[in-house]
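> example.struct
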């Protein structure tokens, strides 16, 4: 009855997790069936008890009434046990489905959609929040069924004596109001608690990433304090949650005790007046417990409020609309013949309302190599992401051989644009799998050639099984990892290659050798290189000098070095042209 009118319950029903309860399939249906069976059996118990008591008062003996009572108790135990088993299966199925959708949505959102969340926060949402929310789904079934049982208890009271039903309805109103208040406050306080948890998880993940730096600088104490800084706010939010439940619980208990006394008092008067029998009075006292059942679900409802708060954090990801994919180009292959001319026109990218790139115009002629140079925070990595279609600009347009990137199917775009990053992550089972990642069926000869061009072949040959060595058995330095990232980009192929500071961990000699190999070995392919070293800038065809999110000049490195002191200051002190 009143349970279904609770706003928090309606919101949980409307959330993505509740919409996915259908994905639990048979296990959740079985859970609901056993729950209904258990409630139905429980509703029959007071009538069986009343029949046995009345037969005892009449002196005829319990007889079949006692046998029926024993059978009902056994059926209740069986229904509860079976319900617990099916509930566990339902939670497992819902959780798997939710996490599957969560991961798919993260990939669909891309860099632009996920950069607003810290990695640790996303991990907390994927693990703890999804699990807590999924456990709320069977609880929702329990609340609905128990709410129906409360209606059944109220109907039974009315059938025994309509004065009992009227008394119950009058006295239950304050309890309903208190329960609504508790749900609303618990959900709000627990939402704050989860946000502080996510903040701690994000800080902890950052610390794990920079653990070597922390050890080297002996800043463990400071980092511990930074990670745990939200802990007092977390503890206060937890205390507030329990305080709300505690404050309302005693008020609720007081109201319920008064209601029980009132209803049973009316029942006692009815016995004295002869309107009901002693057995009916006993049945009424038992049915009163059923009618109050949804109030005694306060702990379950509080758990649902917790589940709703967790579901809200999951929904923040699932409800983010992914970028709309551009339509496929009808031309064969998706792109006209070309060597990878890249054009950026009026490209603007904002983050938190501030421009990272501000109306950038840049042309990279087909088959040439252009380096993007600038101070830290100038927008170099953002420009590299936009140039290859990993990040869509807020304004402006990017074209590859005259075709807007937005007009290309994702499969075409990823086939024609290769990336190498400053901190590559190797994915796959073996080194060969990692180098051919995204290009199944790549020949071993192509993998070997790419490794040779990236100056990675020598150390790969020293591995126990060469390129077939499992990644788990390959300890790599930063430079070796970057060379494998470059080799993977070379295996990828395509008409445009974007290197985002992909040689920063190489020593000067190796970097010069790799840069020369990329220049000569990739003739006819366009290369956009984010560079921090003079040696790299000096070997490319032109340098795009990015300053404060804008292109300040585009010219050969030697010309910029000779004309602009600010350009020379971009590089480390002591560098020479």
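> example.seq
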């Amino acid at each position: 009855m009143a349970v279904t009118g609770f706003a928090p319950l309606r919101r949980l029903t409307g959330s993505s997790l509740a919409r996915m309860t259908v994905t639990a399939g048979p296990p959740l249906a079985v859970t609901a069936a056993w729950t209904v069976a258990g409630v139905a059996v429980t509703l029959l118990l007071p009538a069986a008890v009343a029949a046995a008591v009345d037969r005892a008062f009449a002196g005829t003996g319990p007889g079949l009434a006692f046998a029926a009572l024993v059978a009902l108790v056994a059926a209740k135990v069986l229904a509860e046990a079976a319900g617990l088993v099916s509930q566990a299966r339902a939670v497992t199925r819902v959780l798997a489905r939710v996490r599957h959708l969560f991961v798919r949505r993260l990939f669909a959102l891309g860099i632009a959609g996920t950069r607003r969340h810290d990695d640790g926060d996303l991990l907390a949402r994927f693990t703890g929040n999804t699990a807590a929310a999924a456990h709320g789904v069977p609880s929702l079934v329990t609340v609905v069924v128990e709410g129906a049982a409360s209606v059944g208890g109220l109907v039974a009271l009315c059938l025994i004596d309509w004065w009992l039903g009227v008394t119950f309805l009058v006295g239950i109103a304050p309890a309903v109001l208190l329960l609504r208040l508790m749900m609303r406050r618990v959900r709000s306080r627990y939402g704050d608690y989860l946000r502080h948890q996510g903040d701690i998880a994000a800080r902890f993940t950052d610390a794990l990433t920079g653990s070597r730096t922390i050890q080297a600088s002996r800043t463990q104490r400071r980092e511990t304090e930074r990670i745990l800084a939200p802990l007092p706010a977390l503890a206060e939010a937890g205390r507030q949650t329990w305080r709300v439940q505690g404050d309302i619980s005693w008020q609720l208990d007081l109201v319920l005790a008064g209601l029980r006394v009132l209803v049973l008092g009316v029942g006692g008067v009815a016995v004295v007046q002869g309107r009901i029998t002693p057995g009916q009075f006993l049945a009424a006292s038992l049915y009163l417990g059923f009618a109050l059942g949804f109030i005694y679900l306060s702990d379950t409802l509080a758990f649902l409020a917790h589940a709703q708060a967790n579901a809200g954090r999951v929904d923040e990801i699932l409800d983010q609309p992914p970028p709309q994919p551009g339509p496929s180009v009808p031309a064969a292959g998706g792109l006209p013949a070309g060597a990878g001319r890249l054009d950026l026109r009026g490209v603007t990218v904002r983050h938190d309302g501030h421009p990272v790139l501000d109306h950038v115009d840049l042309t990279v002629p087909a088959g040439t190599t252009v380096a993007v140079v600038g101070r830290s925070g100038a927008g170099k990595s953002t420009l590299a992401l936009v140039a290859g279609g990993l990040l869509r600009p807020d304004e402006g347009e990017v074209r590859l051989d005259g075709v807007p990137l937005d007009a290309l199917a994702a499969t075409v775009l990823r086939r024609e644009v290769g990336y190498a990053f400053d901190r590559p992550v190797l994915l796959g089972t073996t080194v060969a799998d990692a180098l051919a990642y995204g290009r199944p069926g790549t020949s071993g000869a192509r993998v070997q050639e790419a490794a040779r061009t990236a100056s990675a072949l020598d150390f790969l040959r020293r591995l126990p099984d060469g390129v077939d060595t499992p990644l788990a058995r390959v300890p790599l330095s930063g430079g070796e990892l970057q060379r494998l990232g470059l080799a993977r980009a070379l295996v990828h192929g395509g008409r445009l290659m974007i290197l985002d500071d992909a040689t920063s961990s190489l020593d000067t000699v190796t970097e010069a050798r790799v840069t020369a190999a990329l220049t000569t070995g990739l003739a006819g392919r366009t290369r956009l290189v984010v560079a921090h070293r003079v040696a790299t800038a000096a070997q490319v065809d032109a340098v795009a000098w990015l300053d404060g999110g804008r292109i300040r000049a585009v010219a050969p490195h030697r010309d910029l070095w000779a004309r602009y002191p600010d350009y020379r200051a971009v590089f480390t002190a002591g560098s020479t042209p």
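> remarks
The beta strands are 342-351, 354-364, 369-373, 395-400, 403-404, 417-421, 496-500, 526-530, 542-547, 550-555.
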